[in-house]
## 1
Amino acid sequence: MQTSHHDRSRYALSQLTAGCAVFAIAFGLAGAIGVSYAQADDVIVGLVTKTEVNPFFVKMRQAAEAEAKTKGLKLIARAGKFDGDNEGQVAAIEDLISAGAKGILVTPNNSSGMLGVIKKARDAGVLVIALDTATDPADAVDATFATDNFQAGVQQGAYAKAALGDKKPVIAMLDGTPGGTVDTFRHNGFLKGFGIAEGDPAIAGAAITNGAQDKGQVGMENLLSKNGDINVVYTINEPAAAGGYQALKSFGKEKDVVLTSIDGGCAGVRNVKAGIIAATVMQFPYKMASMGVDAVADYAASGKKPTGFVNTGSYLITDKPMPGLDSKDSAWGLQNCWGD
Amino acid sequence: MSSATPSAPEASAGLFSRTKAIPAVGPILVLLAFCLVFAITNPRFLAPHNQSIILQQTIVVGTLAIGQTLVILTAGIDLAVGAICVLGTIVAGKLVLLGYDPVLSMLFAVSLCTLSGFVAGALVSRLDLPPFIVTLGTLGILTAALRLISKGGAFPVQDDFLGLTGNTFRVGSFVLTYGVIAMLLLYAIVWYLLNETRWGRHLYAIGNNPEAARLVGIPVRLHLLQVYALAGLIYGITAWLALGRIPNADPNALQTANLDSITAVVIGGTSLFGGRGGLVGTLIGALIVGVLRNGLTLAGIDPLWQDLVTGILVIVAVAFDQLSRRRR
Amino acid sequence: MSALAAKPQPGNTVRVVLEARKIVKSYGHVVALDGVDFDLRAGEILAVVGDNGAGKSTLIKTLTGAVVPDSGEILLDGQLVHFKGPLDARHRGIETVYQDLAVAPALDIPSNLFLGRELLSSGILGSVFRRLDKRRMREGAAAAMAELKFRLPSINSLVENLSGGQRQGVAVARAAVFASKLVIMDEPTAALGVRETGQVLELIRAIRDRGLPVVLISHNMPNVFDLADRICIMRLGRRAAVVSPKTHTMADVVGIMTGAIKVEGG
Ligand SMILES: Nc1ncnc2c1ncn2[C@@H]1O[C@H](COP(=O)(O)OP(=O)(O)OP(=O)(O)O)[C@@H](O)[C@H]1O
Ligand SMILES: [Mg+2]
């Protein structure tokens, strides 16, 4: 009898000890929560971004936090774990509804994946504003505060066209993730601004970069191997552009190519200043976030809801301005950029 | 020494055989602890609405974790859970878009998922390849293939049958979805398989001591094959449940489902060395993760704390398993 | 549990239960068995001794179907048999306790005892729902242990909570419960202390007393002389001699084992 029961009881005992230890941790946590826990009458505004790590969303979150503080709101920020984490974003919105949020600002991972839960939120009387990325259909949310990515693409394309002058264009497209909403708008906008259509023979080829520098470099290398005459490069964002530049340099072509981009991250603007990127189009995440928080504050105070698409604007940033194209220089860019 | 007869079964069915009947004491205590804390800090936590939300949020990872539990009990590991499930959502969604019958489309998608599990199982059991490598390969292949099929883009899946499991009904003040019921039903069925049938007994024996299992005549290879195929079937059914939760097929979805399901299994007290643990723990483990995320949001705390606490729990659970093994 | 009812055979001690003729088995260049003959009589404990690498385990494995011999024949109750795997031998009533414990430590005693031969509930629960009859297995295990007079803490204990002797006891009991022809044990006491070895030897006697012949591989001469009716001495893949502990001393046996004493025939 002895051995087994002794063992068993020791096992049960150690489980119990472990359980008690966790209780202790949990109550420690409770202490921490007690300090920061929102008062019942706080107006809660939720922010759900795509990921935690992207500096664009970090800027958004910082701006939302700052604005919430000045307006006396309580901000609860949440994010998906990776690009494409619909499940995580849906859960975040559900939790925020449960938490009693007055308004939710969301950068949807994907334009259709969130529709059900957004409807649930709005049915529960929560103001829902899409930031940065529109939903499909766009009126699934109360309002959208975002860059007009198509317009930004047009600005990029128009600049590239002007900078190239009357040379015969040979274009490389460093796309992000094909099928993504933003990706499509920027890509098509660029073509429109450049004045050509999809499938135009001037397009030497396209590469998928997922907006990452390493993949941008590999993609550009492959495209250059395919066609050495490339003289215009579209990039989905500045990291992809930085990667593309590395490839151009290794082919000794960095001087002959017009490398353009979109985003307005500080690293990107520094690259404009350094002459690596000819021009980039800056967008304004902090504007989206602070305008969003303001809208929720308004709604809480007066019940007034914003509607429709609100363009938070985009500026062409370049140190080599082209006649007829509005632009700001890199010094201005560095004061207004996001990330570090 | 040989004079004492063994004690009668009844006499020994005392306190400790009862603790054996609740294998997940530790995880249950942890879950209760967190619930208590969150209930105290924010009364909204206990609202029926919020409780049903947590259950619904547990559906996808919770159901995937059933298959993961089976694989881990054989001392394997499955990194392809999420990828196989996404395969299900995309194939079913695409077929319906192309105008095929939704029921047949879903059946086909589930069969394809089962086949994926079967192939992985064949590689593990026939070629003796390590499960880690096989499922890592499956993950890579499926992820790439799915992005190719869907050209990288997600698409909405608007079909009544495919979205069926998202429909709700009321039980008192609880609003539940059919998906929640389906998940619990799957847990019950597989629990029965594991605990009440030969098949389950043999599974534990294989995970615990494969050589002993072979020597007593258990067809170890065939059994492993069945485990992976059954896991694939479960991932396929999860695809249906996932479409009920989010009517959208996205090749980029569920990238962390493998680690999330392993987390649930491990927190639930199942040993990564195989042969020990069970499904009750896994369900509790999945709920712990869900409760943490929900509770921290309700408390207005940075959800990064969730990852931190989950990480601590995983290490505690594994250390606990290791220590109790070393003692033997 | 019907196997337990396999009661003593008629007292004819010369009846041969299992016979092997000219068994050969090589692993590459290593000839593990070089034409071994072997016979086991009803109701006896036959000890198999020999130096390390003499071929004891390999011989036993050919008898249990775990190894298929290159040539030679095996007769069970005078009938030629071909075992393709351990299961074949088990179906014919041969049970084995392996050198390395063949138990699943995380399972309880009844589960281990019935491993691979679990009992199902009667009626629809068993036939359709494949439900285990845990109560009947528990009772069966308890009855088996009682019959073998083997002392265990609680029939519900997990095997990993048992002492080494008790664990080996479970493995031995499993063989005893299901064997209808004979039980083979490969160094069942190798890893055990003095007291625990005593427990297992006691069990082996209990099995013989129930009428089942036992093949026992052991390096422990005092044990062998204490227990065995006959001793089969292996040397270099052959049977060097079969002797009786009554007519030979330990020194004789060791001498034959090491080749110091030559014997005719074998
Ligand atoms: N699976 C195998 N592969 C290769 N050689 C083997 C294998 N099994 C046994 N042998 C060889 O066959 C010979 C006989 O081995 P066996 O295990 O039968 O000896 P044994 O008498 O049981 O020794 P011990 O007393 O050490 O258990 C040895 O030389 C051994 O190395
Ligand atoms: Mg041996």
Note: Confidence is low (pLDDT under 50) at residues 1-13 of chain C.
## 2
Amino acid sequence: MSDENKKSGWFSRLKAGLSRSSSKLGDGIGSIFTKRKLDDESIEELEELLITSDLGVATSARLAANLAKTRFDKDVDPLEVRESLAAEIEKILEPVALPLEPDGTKAPHIILMVGVNGSGKTTTIGKLASHYKARGLKVMMAAGDTFRAAAIEQLQIWGERTGCPVVAKETGSDAAGLAYEAIERARSEKADVLLIDTAGRLHNKSDLMAELQKVLRVIRKLDATAPHDIVLVLDATTGQNALSQIGTFKELIDITGLVVTKLDGSARGGILVALAEKYSLPVHAIGVGETAEDLRPFTARDFSRSLMGLGNS
Amino acid sequence: MFDSLQERLGSVFDKLKRRGALSEADVTAALREVRVALLEADVALPVVKDFVEKVKVEAVGQNVLKSVTPGQMVIKIVNDQLSAMLGADHVGLNLQVTPPAVIMMVGLQGSGKTTSTAKISKRLTEKERKKVLMASLDVRRPAAQEQLRVLGEQIAVRTLNIVPGEQPVAIAKRAVQTAALEGFDVVMLDTAGRLAIDEELMAEVAAVRDAAKPAETLLVADAMTGQDAVNVADTFNQKVGLTGIVMTRMDGDARGGATLSMRAVTGCPIKLMGVGEKLDELEDFHPSRVASRILGMGDIVSLVEKASENFELEEAEKLAAKIQKGKFDLNDLGSQLKQMQKMGGLSSLMNMLPGMNAGQMKKLKDAKLDDSIIKRQLAILSSMTPLEREKPEVIKAKRRTRIAGGSGTSVQEVNKLLKQHQEAARMMKKVQKMGKKGMMRGGLQNLMPPGMGGFPK
Ligand SMILES: Nc1nc2c(ncn2[C@@H]2O[C@H](COP(=O)(O)OP(=O)(O)OP(=O)(O)O)[C@@H](O)[C@H]2O)c(=O)[nH]1
Ligand SMILES: Nc1nc2c(ncn2[C@@H]2O[C@H](COP(=O)(O)OP(=O)(O)OP(=O)(O)O)[C@@H](O)[C@H]2O)c(=O)[nH]1
Ligand SMILES: [Mg+2]
Ligand SMILES: [Mg+2]
């Protein structure tokens, strides 16, 4: 990695992560348009390449059609096509790129972390705690996953790593009750931010979703405006099911934003584009690894350009 | 937009069914829909192309256009091809080696390796009477070894004692040695989650393989995986060598295209599937069933099997006897509700019902079937006295208020339940002469709480 890359910070990390996928996509576009006119066949191929990045059939078709409108039957070079697609995607993502900023007047600002099993909720809480603490905020965490084996111990280790207190009860205790206690403790200890973990749950399990609604009701008994953020953690390898996942979580517990994890893998995270179009939920940050440092802001331009295999110019 | 592959294909085939004969253009149009449906179901593009091509060749070869019921024929070809792609039949774990047989679990972060390790151990211990030792080689994720230890306690399966600082290859060797010395049949190796593109960690797991010589190397993958499924499965297969795949989170509503992709790209059978977080929620993978489920023709085989598995014979006979006498009280309704719950609730039954087309599926979804209703109804029943359950006619206004209060429900809900029972009792009389099979079907129909509209006709 060159010095310049090192300096450019998170982008190089993201780009390294996305490089396999983006270069594949980039190469694909390269081979489609080398010395060719933009015709129906090449548009279809382009559409298919977008589909293989998980953008989904509808979004891919629309992006390809837009390109066709302006460039059809013209000689196009691959770089131009990438640039214009990246710009198009950036336009879609720009409005949703919003950081997760604790509100200083809330004391504590309460963030509830939700999502399907194994998406990265607990790890993201650890990363956020580390991030906020580095900014001088007083952070507290609540081990609200009282179901999964060793979920509490997992968060407690994050507590040790980040030096932030963790409110916990034994496995099997009531998650809503724990959230209640955690808020009381965060208040009495004057914490700025309280990060509440929850057990993973599939959105189509009505009993588990009802349990989450109960957690919300109990939290709101203490503070009618809380949780101030309900963040859904989404695994970047997820395909089109993310649409159903987010639709249901939004409908039932009114999530306020997303964090996308595991973008350091070969998954392309293209589903984000379709999600932005359909739900316009803020994307707060992305996960690019398993350690505390591996959380990055989500930037529309960098993400779009990475997706298209373009440099950060 | 269509909500599922099932619906999408359903609507295509609805169109086909309505025509007496198919033009070639119709077949092409149908296959275009199939292609889009498969892509929306997250089947990887190269796999989709291959599939559509095969179906086309088959369809033309079998003279679809001259067939009497062309729609059905195309359905059958698509179905057969899907099944074939998923694998001919169920393939079990291969433990036919000199003991201890080592099973190594690999996969991406959070895919379900540790949970599946415990599930498989539980099954081998309880169903196949194997002596199983589990070992966690995950020295990276916080509390990963602790997680497996706790699961081992829950299912009463030994876990290798944790030695702080010990590295994966050394742990694997110690596990195999311990197993050989102490006469274990099977060693389950749970590994840390890793990215397929992480060269260093992929080399580590290859080193574990070389040290432990697993009889089975299972890729644990999430049923919600998108297009990346082919890259992941292909890379793990090339770098580690897979013998099978475990698909987790099949209890979700993902369309499961990853199942097709991974099978196609590795040629490895999908051996098992996870259908929940609990440790007994592991099932054999039956390709034909999954294919027909994807296609929306319902999984009547699995419905019948599930029903007979759960419906304890004794109870069935007791109920049959009562029905013979024309008696069906609230106790019987209660036991039916409980059976219903055991079968995985309304929504899981719905998915397995045959003959539903796209519109009906959508209607069902819109009706927002809620399994919690069963729970509430069971609560109502348990707030009744034995007399009330046996002789529902004694439940007048006062009793209704008490029951509602006791069960934390409303009088309206109590009324609804009583009405539902009356209808069920009437229905039971009707099916009296139909034998056990008919009774079961009638029983299931009646379990639909009123106000949900029953099964769409
Ligand atoms: N490579 C990579 N791995 C990640 C990232 N975020 C989380 N993980 C890993 O993913 C796995 C699951 O993460 P958890 O934080 O335990 O996920 P969870 O959503 O809390 O899981 P449950 O509580 O079981 O539902 C762990 O192995 C994490 O280390 C990421 O951004 N990149
Ligand atoms: N609904 C559902 N949840 C599952 C299934 N299998 C595993 N899980 C859940 O998925 C989450 C992650 O499972 P783990 O077994 O910890 O995954 P892992 O692959 O060991 O994770 P790492 O070790 O961090 O890579 C947990 O919350 C499990 O309860 C399944 O079949 N269905
Ligand atoms: Mg967790
Ligand atoms: Mg694990």
Note: The pocket of magnesium ion (ligand 3) is lined by residues A 121-122, 145, 151, 197 (CB under 6 Å).
## 3
Amino acid sequence: MLDQPSHTPFTGPLLQVRDLTLHYRTRQGDVRAVDGVTFSLGRGQVLGLVGESGCGKTSLGMGLLKLLPSNARLVRGEIIFDGQDLAPLNDAQMRRYRWRRIAMIFQAAMNALDPVYRVGEQILEAMEAHAWPGIEDGPAGQKRRQAREKVKELFRLVGLDPELMDRYPHELSGGMRQRAVIAMSLACRPDLVIADEPTTALDVIVQERILRELKSIQKELGLSLLYITHDVAVVAEVADQVGVMYAGQLVELGDTPQVFHQPMHPYTAGLLASFPSIRGEKRPLAALPGEPPSLVAPPSGCRFHPRCPRATKECRQEVPPVVGQGNAWAACWHPLGAAQP
Amino acid sequence: MAGYLLRRLLQVLVTLFLFVTLSFFLIQAQPGDYSSFYSLNPKLPPEVQSRVRAQFGLDRPLGEQYLLHLKNFATGNFGVSFSHYPQSVLEVILERLPRTAALFLTATVVSFYAGFFLGKMLAWRRGGWVEYSATISGVALFTVFTPWFALMMIWLFAFKLGWFPLGKFLDPLVWRNAPVSANQVFGYMLFTGAAIAVILFLAMLLLAQLGLRRRGWLPAAVAIICVASAVIAWAGSGVGYLALDILKHMVLPIATLTLISFAGTMLLTRNSMLETLREDYITAARAKGLPEKVVRDRHAARNALLPVVTSLVFSLAFAVDGGVITESVFSWPGMGLTLLDAVLSEDLPLAMGALVFVGLLALVAHAVADVLYVYLDPRIRYQ
Ligand SMILES: Nc1ncnc2c1ncn2[C@@H]1O[C@H](COP(=O)(O)OP(=O)(O)OP(=O)(O)O)[C@@H](O)[C@H]1O
Ligand code: SF4
Ligand SMILES: [Mg+2]
């Protein structure tokens, strides 16, 4: 089977993100897609990141790899990965982390494969760019042959016929492509995989199966996984911890059972209520009235206040305090359940 | 793939048949009696006239004439040229076709390569005065009136600067005591060019097989060695000065054709590349930690190439136009000029033959570009 990811002497959490702030420059003004996000992710842990469409999940995920469009700007913050802050690194330095240490499964994973090359070739290409990680040293041809065997192994791991590695992307079905992309993300034996809605484009049954496989691979390889989705049911299934994002900010963070059974933030409660499948009750969807706010000129005070049933005057004027501590907190003036601050 | 090639070949043959048929009836439909015009042409001796009459069935009904026309075409018999008598139409064409092919092929290859390279770079490094000025001059070249542009080239480089001759195929003064004919020399030149191309191609294949193609200087070294040995061989042959004379005459028409078609390729590549750069697989390639050059060339440019080749297929018809104009402005005695002269001097057999061959040339180029596309895009490769 595949080897465990390499361990280094650094013993803190694998990933610590502090006050990460990311803006897009547009004609309308700066879009504050990620604003002061702080969290950490331990080795072998799964952190689920949920939030409505447009709340900045993808921006955050891409920001961690510093793969941003030209109009984006990393305003401030630290991305401490395995003891090293990635924020000040340039593109050439980042390249050593990309895929080798932090891999990604994209939101539109179906389109993450280049149509003109064979699938296996695109995986080998990544391994070659990182000096064939996990392959014994030797002549180029021999390393390539070994790497091909490795890719076949990965294909079996994700439930694909190894023969498919010599097919072109258009010859595979959506589910197969998705699995191939997952195999590709594992090829350089990363420590962290960022999965950005990896299954949304697939039908529910395939989605479910791939999700379960991803989870078991994560366990087997001891990977850390940052799982981004808008579907709280998915998070409940895969994540050890949940982060809830609203309008570019992290508003609640905690252990999955905790957050799901006793949400502190009213937005989390609303989000859970809008997904009836969690508690098995049949309730109408859209328990969250209103629209997500503009990220160019977000509401003052608590950004959720225009939609919050508990909003008061101080919510509208003052930035809410953080209640709770460590890896279980919410940013709210009037959190649910907990004692009033 | 073999099935596709076969189908494509059949298509070319059918198109050619339609083209030949159309040209026959178009000429029949012209005012004046074609047959009497042909057989009573005063430039032809009576015995040739009677032979022509029999061969083309000019005294027969139209249907029979048409069948004979097809048969003559299939056997390469286009009759005799009025204006070049006693040369046959086929002889005139076979002498001139290579000149046009050389002009076209060189201009197409150079303009495509240069246009693609520049367009790629423009899209990759956006902004700044380089992109701005290249885009402006690209649009200017793309929209320029071809004859005017060709004349400006002559005015500047031949008349003002005197770097190149004003036009024509060769300089009679240079060739006065030449030991060989111009067509022979030109034939050898074409052979040299083709040999270099083939050797380079094989060398690339070999380098790719050995996994050495990523070393940028190797292909360049092979190219330099090829060209250098060709130059040395010509210099030692004793007729190198004649080849040089023809070469000098080729520079301006090729440069003109190249510049005109290069701009379109450049602008199109730039747009296509900008589009490709937004694709998810480009982000994925970056996320994989591939070097920027690999992302640019292996992924972005490789995909951006597809629409550019498609448009090349369509723009070939336009290139024929530009070719006729360029040849006539530079008095380059190729197919375009032959066609034009034949029409002006009412040399109908030659005009017809030239027309058919120009059409054939365009068809073949079209088919080649088409097959190239199928090769480049795996999504349609095996359908
Ligand atoms: N290149 C860009 N330029 C300007 N604004 C952008 C850009 N990319 C994203 N945005 C904006 O940033 C905000 C966050 O986008 P992001 O894609 O990160 O959201 P998301 O949570 O991933 O949404 P979804 O669930 O739809 O994928 C959105 O309002 C979006 O419109
Ligand atoms: S701070 Fe106020 S508005 Fe914001 S979520 Fe809490 S109660 Fe609602
Ligand atoms: Mg997203």
Note: The pocket of adenosine-5'-triphosphate (ligand 1) is lined by residues A 24, 26, 31, 33, 51, 53-59, 69, 71, 107, 230, 295 (CB under 6 Å).
## 4
Amino acid sequence: MRDVAIIGAGMIPFGRRDEDTLMDMLAYASLKALDDAGLGDKSVDAVYVGNMGAGMLQHQSAIASSLVDRLNLLPAAAETVENGPASGGSAVKNGLLAVASGYYDYVLVVGGEKMREVTGWRATDFVATMTHPQAEYPYGITLPGMAGMFTRLYMEKYGVTREHLLAISLKNQEMGTLNPYAHVEMALDRDGIFDSPHAIVNNPVSADPLHLYDLCPVSDGAAAIILCPLEMAKKLTKPPVLIAGFGQATDTQTLQERDDPTDLKAVTLAAQKAFEMAKLKPGDIHVAELHDAFTILEIAESEHVGFFKKGEGGKAATAGKTRLGGQIPINLSGGLKARGHPVGATGVAQVVDIVYQLRHELPKNRQVQKAENGLTVNFGGFGNNVLAFVLRRVQL
Amino acid sequence: MKKEIAITAYKCKKCGKLHYPYHDRCLACKSREFEQIKPQGNAKLLTYTAIFNLPWGFDQRFLLIGVAEFENKIKAMGQIKADSVDQLKVGMKVKPSWEPIRVQYGEDVYGLKFEPIP
Ligand SMILES: [Zn+2]
């Protein structure tokens, strides 16, 4: 197996992008990554596109073939990778394995989703199609609904409170205002969404006990990276970032069939495998992008990957341990909560944000000083398919 | 007329593990032989939520959904017949029934409903 480096990264601002088609977004993000890698008009050997919903939302299939045509990356190998909200992470994994194996040298990985093309009603149904087709979907369950049921159990078992969840909303939305690529551009006011009598109007219950601002927005967006063998990356001008570790694990589709439905086993296993491969421990990580589609998930994942003991994640967040300058800064991009969650883009965007961190090129108000190791967690289904990557700045 | 609860759970013939929904191999021992089991008696509410942003196909204001465990240990998701989450509590007894849960292509789709037992 060869060491694999990320030599280019790029993304387009997430949000509502009425003027762009899905193919436009995938193309723009890809060009930014190609330019960032300094590949200019060169081609790549293979392209992996992470996307969940082109078939359902755009009535379009085989988008990877369409993308290589638009970008004239012909005759590169190309395919789309669909793995629910972990499609982006799965596309990165496919690129990683292809380069590590020695079969391809230069690979483009791009993830994108255009969700605002349809009404919120349709988008909610689209995301719900990943639930069990007989035992869950017909009842009208949604992903926020799954998260609501999970939150109720997590609160009962570990004493997580709305105050803990609020700390995640406030932190991530504040960081989003500092990130030019984030969907959400407005910081939240604690009084307006929590303390004051009209908080229930501004921040109504969305999937009890979760409120509106516990949920990520519905977004359009795309992000891309370029991979090549580390050996070939050493001639480049920007510091390459090594994919030092990778792990993936699955779990039962329904929560009720897990021995302990609050135990996100796939998160623990994916992170353990990634740490093992990187020969690092959770304490060695300087910055992390976790999959906070719902505020409870940032807390639960920060415990399951090993940053905090079970039941300590919420307290750590309210104590500021996950802010810039804290013990382990989490989601300095704003996370899914504020950067947005165009499902197929997310797993790639998380990697892009950690690449920026490890190349030390972010403004002071978001940059972790001297960051060398980063972690991403991309959470598919309701934790039934999870990918984790450990990235490392390479000292040349 | 009351409809029978049309849910089938699967008990592994080798190790006894109970499954719902269906798996082709046992989640505990990978055996492929199952005995079909019907849910029995009332159920206990394990968790629940009220969903206010409903998916396409549902046009009510909100929906109460939960997971409950039957007396013979089968666990399943269902809609809850109550006015608000204030009437619900984890661990409470609920009475199951098989009723229309949504309309698709102009036809009623049947599924589990749970009603709190006072
Ligand atoms: Zn068995």
Note: The domain at 4-119+219-233 of chain A is CATH 3.40.47.10 (Peroxisomal Thiolase; Chain A, domain 1).
